[in-house]
C-alpha cells in the first residue's frame, strides 16, 4: 500500500485485491461492483493486521482515525448511528484472510447493541423478541470471542431457561425470557472476566460488559487481528501451507437479519455440489435464524432446494445470483446469504472448497461447458486432493448392520476406536491407535483432533457445518447429523436411540462418508479404482507434462499397481526388502559363514530367490525401465538385536544352561558386536559394502541379468537399470561398474541373449553433488536419493527428528516445513548443482529423483524447474506427481508468455 491506506469501503475495491482486502473483503467489493445486493461496509486491510501483530498488539498510528472516518461514512449511507437510542446501526465484524480458512478465525454479529440501543431497535422493528434475541446473541458471541469467556456458560444458561419454560428450542423463548437471559449473561461476564486482562473495562475492580459501542468495535477488531495467531488458525495454515505473514483483513458490515420471523432466513450454499461436483445448487438454510445457526450445527438445517417451497420469489432471485457469480468467477462459488423480511442480501462469496471427486468433475464439466480451457481445468485440481480418491471404501461384498445414519458430508470410509474429544484423538494416535472423533458437533477448536482422526462423526449439523467443510478440505471421511446418537462427552459415551446400543471410548466403529452410514465394529475396506474424471484429468495432464513419473516398487504387486496409476517405470527397487521374512536366515548364513564354501552356498540360494524376484518385477513392468538399487544397508541390520541376544544368554545362564549350550550364542554375539558401528548410516553400507564384499553385488547383478535374459528369450522387453548406492568418489563407481559389466557380459554369454543394462548411481551425499561432473563420466544416470541427501546435508536423522525436535522447529518457525516431506531449498541447490555438473561432462546422462519428495507436489515443481527427466515415488503418489508435473509445465508456459 504505497499510499498508506488501511481502510477501504466495499465500493472502493475489487476481486484483484485479495492480498490487501482478504478474500472475503475483495469478493464483497466485487459483488458490490457487480450490482448485487450487498449490505454496505468497509474492510481494514491485512497489512494493518500485520502491523498490529508486529507492533506488540497495538493499533498502528492513524488507524483509529481512519476507522472512525469510515464508520461516519457508513452511518451517512445508512441514515443510522452506531449505538443510537432511536434508530441504531448494527454491524458485523468478520475476519477474511487472503486464502479461505473456514471457521478458523473469529466473527462477531449484532455489534452496536447496548441497554439503550436495544430499546431503539424495539421501537424501529416493533419486535421486542427479535431485539432481545439479537442482544443476547451479541453478548454471548462477543464475550466468547473477545473476552474469552467459556461458551458453555452461556449455553448452560440457555438450557436452564428452556427447561424452566418447558420448551425445546431457543425460538420458543419469549421476549421476557430473552431479556432475563441478557441480564444473566452480563452476570456471567462480570463473574468470569478479570480486571487484569481488560483494565479498560474495569470499574471498582469488576469488569462489566462494555456498553460503549466504540469500545465494542475496537475490541472486536483487535480480537479478529489476534485470531490470526490462534491455535486453530495456525494449525490450519500449517496443514494447508499458508504463510504466516499474510495477516487477516477485518470486514465491518451493516447487519441484516435472518431472525425477524417467518419471512426471514439465512443460509450457506454452493453453485454446484461440493461433495461430488454435480451441477446443482447445494446447501442449507434456516428460517428465522442467523448465520451462525447454520454453520455451527446447533440446529438441523433445511436443504436449499426447499427454499422454492417457502419463499419462491426470493429463491428465484437467489438462483439468478448463483448463475451470475459462477459465470463471473468461472468456478464453483460458496455463498452466504440472508433474507430479511423477504429481501435478499449477499453476505459473502468465494471460490468454494470441494472434495477431490468434486474438483475433478467440476473441472471436466466446466471444460466441456466452455467456461474454462483444458489447461485451466488441469490447474484447478490440487494434486494433494487426488489422495482423497485413493483412500479405502467399504467393501461392496461386506455384510454389516447399520448402527445409525447421518448425512454423507465427506466421502471415503474409515475404521477406528471411538474418542470423544480432540485431545483424546491426538493422544490415541500418538499411541499408535486409529480413531474416529465423535462429537455432538465440532468447533474450530477441534481442528487438531480432526487432523489426527481417521474420520469424524457428529450427531448434529448439516453438509455445510464446520465438521463437513473442514473434513472435505482434509479428505477425511465425515458423517454429520446422525441424530440417533445421544452423546455424553463427559462420560465418554453415546447411546443410539431406538436400539439402546451404547458406544464407549475405545469401541471400534466404521463410518462411510459417501453414504452417511455408521457401523458398530470394523467393516472390511477396499481401495478404489482410478476411472472416469480422474482418468480424464490425468490424461490431459499427460498431454502437457514433459517430466516423467516412475514408481518406487519392491514387489511385482507394487510394480503392477504403479503401472495402473500411470507410472512409466520403476525409479527405485530396493533389494534389501527382498532379504527379509523367510529369507532372512539365508542372509544371516551368508553374513556369518566361516568359510568360502558356506558363503557360496548361501549366495547360491539368494541368487535363486533374487532371480525369481526380478522376473516378477520386470514382467510387471515389461517394456518400461526398472532401476534396481543394489544392497544398501549395513549387514548387521539383518542380524539379531545384540541387546535381545545378550538378555537371552543371561536368562539361559540363570536357568542353568551348560557352557556347551551357550557357546554358539556367545560366539554369535561376539560376531554381531564385532560388526557394530558407532554411526551405521555413515559406515559400511552402500557401495562400500560392494567393494568390501564384491560377491554380494556380483550375485545381485547376476540375478538381475539372468531374469532379464530369461524374459528377453520369451519375447518380453525387460529394461533393467543397475543403481549403485552411496557413491562419493568417481573411483567407487568406476570400480563397481567394471565388476558389474563383467558379470553382465558373462551371464549374457551363458544365456545367449543380449540386454542393454544401464549402470548409474544414487546421488545422496553432498560430496557426490559437488563432484558430479567427475562421477558423471562413468554413469549412465543419476538418481537423487533426496531422503539421505537431506539427512547428510542437514546432519539430521530422519528416524529421530520428528519425535525429538522437529515439532519445536516448526512451531518456532526455525524450519518453514518438514524437509523430509517437501524439498529444502538448500538440498534443492545440491540437486541443481549435481544436474548441471553432470550434464557438463555427460550431456546425455539421465537424471531423476527417487526419494519421498518425488511424490510431493511442491517438490515436483521444484524438480521440474531444475530440469530433471523424471521423479519416482510410491505407487499411490504417482497420480499426484503426474498432475503436479503438468501444472509445473503449464506454469512455465504461462511465465514465458507473460515475459514476451
Description:
- This protein is α/β, with parallel strands linked by helices and 900 residues long.
- Helices cover 46% and strands 17% of the residues.
- The chain has an 8-stranded mixed sheet with strand order 16-26-25-18-19-20-21-17. Strands 28-29-30-31-32-33-34-35 form an 8-stranded parallel barrel, surrounded by 6 helices. A 5-stranded antiparallel sheet has the order 1-2-9-5-6.
- A hairpin with a 2-residue loop joins β13 (333-340) and β14.
- The chain is elongated and about 105 Å long.
- The model has no long low-confidence stretch (mean pLDDT 91).
Brief descriptors of the model:
alpha/beta; 8-stranded mixed beta sheet; 34 helices; 900 residues; single chain; 8-stranded parallel beta barrel
Give a concise summary.
With 900 residues, the chain is an alpha/beta fold.
Work out the number of β strands.
Answer: 35
The biggest sheet amounts to:
8 strands, mixed
Instruction: Quickly count the helices.
Output: 34
Which spans of ≥5 residues are poorly predicted at pLDDT below 50?
none
Estimate the strand proportion. 15-25%
Widest sheet, order of strands: 16-26-25-18-19-20-21-17
Rg from Cα: 33 Å
Question: End-to-end distance, in Å?
Answer: 28 Å
Q: Averaged pLDDT, please?
A: 91
Structural class: alpha/beta
Amino acid at each position: 500500500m504505497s499510499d498508506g491506506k488501511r481502510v477501504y469501503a466495499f465500493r472502493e475495491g475489487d476481486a484483484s485485491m485479495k492480498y490487501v482486502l482478504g478474500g472475503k473483503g475483495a469478493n464483497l467489493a466485487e459483488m458490490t461492483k457487480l450490482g448485487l445486493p450487498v449490505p454496505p461496509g468497509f474492510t481494514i486491510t491485512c497489512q494493518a493486521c500485520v502491523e498490529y501483530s508486529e507492533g506488540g498488539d497495538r493499533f498502528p498510528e492513524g488507524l483509529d482515525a481512519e476507522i472512525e472516518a469510515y464508520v461516519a461514512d457508513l452511518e451517512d449511507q445508512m441514515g443510522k448511528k452506531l449505538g443510537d437510542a432511536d434508530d441504531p446501526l448494527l454491524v458485523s465484524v468478520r475476519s477474511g484472510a487472503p486464502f479461505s480458512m473456514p471457521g478458523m478465525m473469529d466473527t462477531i454479529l449484532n455489534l452496536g447493541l447496548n441497554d439503550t440501543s436495544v430499546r431503539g431497535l424495539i421501537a424501529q422493528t416493533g419486535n421486542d423478541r427479535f431485539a432481545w434475541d439479537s442482544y443476547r446473541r451479541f453478548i454471548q458471541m462477543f464475550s466468547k470471542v473477545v473476552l474469552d469467556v467459556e461458551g458453555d456458560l452461556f449455553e448452560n444458561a440457555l438450557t436452564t431457561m428452556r427447561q424452566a419454560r418447558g420448551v425445546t428450542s431457543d425460538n420458543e423463548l419469549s421476549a421476557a425470557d430473552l431479556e432475563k437471559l441478557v441480564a444473566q449473561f452480563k452476570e456471567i461476564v462480570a463473574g468470569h472476566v478479570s480486571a487484569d486482562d481488560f483494565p479498560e473495562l474495569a470499574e471498582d475492580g469488576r469488569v462489566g460488559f462494555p456498553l460503549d459501542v466504540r469500545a465494542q468495535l475496537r475490541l472486536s477488531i483487535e480480537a479478529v487481528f489476534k485470531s490470526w495467531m490462534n491455535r486453530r488458525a495456525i494449525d490450519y495454515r500449517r496443514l494447508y501451507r499458508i504463510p504466516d505473514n499474510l495477516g487477516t483483513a477485518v470486514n465491518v458490515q451493516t447487519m441484516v437479519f435472518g431472525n425477524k420471523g417467518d419471512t426471514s432466513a439465512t443460509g450457506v450454499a454452493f453453485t454446484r455440489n461440493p461433495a461430488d461436483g454435480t451441477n446443482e445448487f447445494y446447501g442449507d438454510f434456516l428460517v428465522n435464524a442467523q448465520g451462525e445457526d447454520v454453520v455451527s450445527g446447533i440446529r438441523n438445517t433445511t436443504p436449499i432446494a426447499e427454499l422454492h417451497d417457502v419463499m419462491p420469489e426470493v429463491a428465484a432471485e437467489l438462483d439468478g445470483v448463483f448463475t451470475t457469480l459462477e459465470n463471473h468467477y468461472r468456478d464453483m462459488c460458496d455463498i452466504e446469504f440472508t433474507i430479511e423480511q423477504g429481501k435478499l442480501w449477499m453476505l459473502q462469496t468465494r471460490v468454494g472448497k470441494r472434495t477431490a471427486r468434486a474438483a475433478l468433475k467440476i473441472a471436466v464439466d466446466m471444460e466441456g461447458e466452455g467456461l474454462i480451457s483444458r489447461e485451466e481445468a488441469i490447474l484447478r485440481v490440487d494434486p494433494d486432493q487426488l489422495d482423497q480418491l485413493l483412500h479405502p471404501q467399504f467393501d461392496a461384498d461386506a455384510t454389516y448392520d447399520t448402527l445409525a445414519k447421518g448425512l454423507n458430508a465427506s466421502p471415503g470410509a474409515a475404521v477406528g476406536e471411538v474418542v470423544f474429544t480432540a485431545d483424546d484423538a491426538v493422544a490415541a494416535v500418538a499411541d499408535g491407535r486409529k480413531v474416529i472423533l465423535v462429537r455432538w458437533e465440532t468447533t474450530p477448536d477441534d481442528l487438531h483432533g480432526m487432523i489426527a482422526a481417521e474420520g469424524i462423526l457428529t450427531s448434529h449439523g448439516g453438509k455445510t457445518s464446520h465438521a463437513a467443510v473442514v473434513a472435505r478440505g482434509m479428505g477425511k471421511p465425515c458423517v454429520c447429523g446422525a441424530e440417533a446418537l445421544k452423546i455424553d462427552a463427559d462420560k465418554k459415551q453415546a447411546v443410539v436411540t431406538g436400539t439402546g446400543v451404547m458406544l464407549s471410548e475405545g469401541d471400534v466403529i466404521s463410518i462411510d462418508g459417501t453414504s452417511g452410514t455408521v457401523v458398530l465394529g470394523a467393516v472390511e475396506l477396499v481401495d478404489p479404482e482410478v476411472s472416469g474424471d480422474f482418468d480424464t484429468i490425468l490424461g490431459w495432464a499427460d498431454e502437457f507434462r514433459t517430466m516423467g513419473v516412475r514408481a518406487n516398487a519392491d514387489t511385482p504387486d507394487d510394480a503392477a499397481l504403479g503401472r495402473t496409476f500411470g507410472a512409466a517405470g520403476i525409479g527405485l527397487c530396493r533389494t534389501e526388502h527382498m532379504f527379509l521374512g523367510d529369507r532372512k536366515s539365508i542372509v544371516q548364513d551368508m553374513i556369518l559363514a566361516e568359510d568360502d564354501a558356506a558363503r557360496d552356498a548361501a549366495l547360491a540360494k539368494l541368487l535363486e530367490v533374487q532371480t525369481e524376484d526380478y522376473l516378477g518385477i520386470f514382467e510387471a513392468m515389461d517394456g518400461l525401465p526398472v532401476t534396481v538399487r543394489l544392497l544398501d544397508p549395513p549387514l548387521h541390520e539383518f542380524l539379531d538385536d545384540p541387546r535381545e541376544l545378550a538378555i537371552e544368554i543371561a536368562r539361559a545362564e540363570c536357568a542353568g544352561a551348560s557352557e556347551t549350550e551357550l557357546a554358539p550364542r556367545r560366539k554369535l554375539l561376539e560376531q554381531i558386536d564385532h560388526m557394530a558401528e558407532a554411526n551405521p548410516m555413515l559406515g559400511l553400507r552402500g557401495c562400500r559394502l560392494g567393494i568390501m564384499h564384491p560377491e554380494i553385488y556380483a550375485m545381485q547383478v547376476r540375478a538381475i541379468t539372468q531374469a532379464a535374459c530369461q524374459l528377453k528369450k520369451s519375447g518380453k522387453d525387460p529394461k533393467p537399470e543397475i543403481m549403485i548406492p552411496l557413491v562419493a568418489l568417481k573411483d567407487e563407481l568406476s570400480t563397481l561398474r567394471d565388476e558389474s559389466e563383467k558379470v553382465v557380459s558373462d551371464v549374457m554369454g551363458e544365456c545367449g541373449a543380449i540386454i542393454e543394462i544401464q549402470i548409474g548411481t544414487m546421488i545422496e551425499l553432498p560430496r557426490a553433488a559437488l563432484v558430479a561432473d567427475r562421477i558423471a563420466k562413468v554413469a549412465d544416470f543419476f538418481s537423487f536419493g533426496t531422503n539421505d541427501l537431506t539427512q547428510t546435508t542437514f546432519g539430521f536423522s530422519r528416524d529421530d527428528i520428528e519425535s525429538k525436535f522437529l515439532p519445536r522447529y516448526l512451531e518456532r518457525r526455525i524450519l518453514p516445513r518438514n524437509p523430509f516431506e517437501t524439498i529444502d531449498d538448500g538440498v534443492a541447490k545440491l540437486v541443481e548443482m549435481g544436474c548441471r555438473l553432470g550434464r557438463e561432462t555427460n550431456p546425455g546422462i539421465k537424471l531423476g529423483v527417487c526419494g519421498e519428495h518425488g511424490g510431493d507436489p511442491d517438490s515436483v515443481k521444484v524438480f521440474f524447474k531444475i530440469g530433471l527427466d523424471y521423479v519416482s515415488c510410491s505407487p499411490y503418489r504417482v497420480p499426484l506427481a503426474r498432475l503436479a508435473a503438468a501444472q509445473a509445465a503449464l506454469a512455465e508456459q504461462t511465465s514465458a508468455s507473460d515475459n514476451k
